Amino acid sequence: MDGHSRRTFIAQLGLALSAGPILACGDARAQRSHRAGAWPGPAEPISRASEPLPTVGDTLELTPDEWMERLTREQFRILREEGTERAGTSPLNREHRRGTFHCAGCGAPLFRSADKFDSGTGWPSFTRPIEGRIDTRIDRSFSMSRTEVHCARCGGHMGHVFRDGPPPTGRRYCINGVSLEFKPAG
Question: Is 151 in the active site?
Fold first, then answer.
């Protein structure tokens, strides 16, 4: 399968998966609350712009209830339950200003705008992360093997990385826009 076909397949898979909530992980209490409709968190995303920038190696660990209070329902589904947003829905696809993309869960800077490109998949894509800000692990769901991308600070699910990106890295970090917050350069 060539790079374009793979991107098209992944985009279509994302559309299918985002049709309903996917509860892939998280504790039972959070999943019950999610399904029941009781949501203690904010209705709209909260900007973490006023929080101090975390240093590389700093970690943030919260309980599922604390995450639920901090995140919107959709952010929780993506960041904590490893969901996928519907392709083409993120306003960050059209973000072309200079700046930095931060984790929507903890505020850690993850990607620079200089490394963003239009992959044609419907998700914000980057050629590389900021050094030390991303962790990866193998994801074998849906009968395929992919490399899953997480925020190194809070463990929030960002998306996946593929080996069909443009130079200089040949990588495509395909990231859920819901998991990111853009901060324009000074």
Answer: no
